[in-house]
What we know:
Blueprint: H1 6-9, H2 11-25, E1 36-42, H3 60-67, E2 70-76, H4 82-91, H5 95-98, H6 107-110, H7 117-122, E3 127-132, E4 169-170, E5 176-177, E6 181-184, H8 195-210, E7 217-223, E8 230-233, H9 266-269, H10 272-275, H11 288-318, E9 325-331, H12 350-353, E10 354-360, E11 395-401, E12 419-421, H13 429-439, E13 446-452
Helix pairs in contact: 2-13, 3-11, 8-11
Amino acid sequence: MLPPGGGLLWLGLVLGSVCASVGSAAPGNSATDALNVLLIIVDDLRPSLGCYGDKLIRSPNMDQLASHSLLFQNAFAQQAVCAPSRVSLLTGRRPDTTRLYDFNSYWRAHSGNFSTIPQYFKENGYVTMSVGKVFHPGVSSNHSDDSPYSWSVPPYHPSSEKYENTKTCRGPDGELHANLLCPVDVADVPEGTLPDKQSTEQAIRLLGKMKTSASPFFLAVGYHKPHIPFRYPKEFQKLYPLENITLAPDPQVPASLPPVAYNPWMDIRRREDVQALNLSVPYGLIPADFQRKIRQSYFACVSYLDTQVGHLLSALDDLQLASSTIVALTSDHGWALGEHGEWAKYSNFDVTTRVPLVFYVPGRTAPLPAAGDKLFPYLDPFDSISESVEPGVKGKFTLTSVSQSSQAGPLQAGKPGTSWNCSLSSPRSRDLQGCASLLAAPSPRFTWSCAEKAGTF
């Protein structure tokens, strides 16, 4: 049995198995028949999404993606720190193997010359591209995002990301500050844009170029928000009036919590607006009104992120690539919003290690769109909340094949009604291999069932 953290380690298995099985299903397929891959990695996104049952969050575009996808209810990062989690995800190896628990070593030099998921695709005929924060920048990716091993072209980083931690937040005094809470008028910030907007625009440009390419592509897009500081277009704050924001259900530090299990969230204490609260270290409690403002801004960042995902997926439709592109969406880890007195990642609580994990496979998790139809029309979060995924559902999703072609697949595809448990709450390797192989089976028609199970984030 794999530990709960095995969730993201199996991303490569699912992608690789799907591509390998699809490629082998029809003899004589050329590179032009291979499925493309769009991998969306979000920074610090916990499963606070409509498709995961959160009734407050407006995330219609990610919910729409989930409605066409295989959704994992219990996927967990290996470690709630950016660099170790991303290296683990992209190499398919645990931090115990990469020997990276912080930001200060490069696995190829420090522990082993391990291949990465994009490197595997590159070595098998794919054009591999990186936009935004995919690997953690710096020492842990050799100051190069692991180029040239993982990428066919130089990775793209938005020019405006250098302003993320500078004084660009206008406070009530009219002055600019380096705050935690930073709703902005985009027209007033340096360069008149934000990093995630630039990343979306670059990713769409690359999709346009790859539409006419003879080679399949692997495009990884890394979004910064909802990572701190909560710097986002100020109009998204209107989606979450403070009177609708509740405190965490368990906001107190547990009385018997060992000190080693607690992180004093020093990264947010350095922000000017948090410094002004004059909190004691390490257990000082943030005032309730400021707690609500933190939660409000995190949720606003999620909705802002959702619009960027929506524009990206809509472009996939417009370029007629939705029928030939696998889409995987996940996060490097979660983030505590006051649960257990924490306001950070850096712990082993579920709220910091549990992540969303969604796979869309054209013709497998959803029927191929008819000519002229769109699978991913852009949805405005300021409109009514999407009803595409029933909110409030908790449990294990089971993917059930309802018809199979006569061509034998890797899992005796001639047998209708084959069912595989794709939850990671108690994962077994055969379950996950079954999920991957069933997704790649010849039949494009599936039904979904969900065994309801109570739970909280």
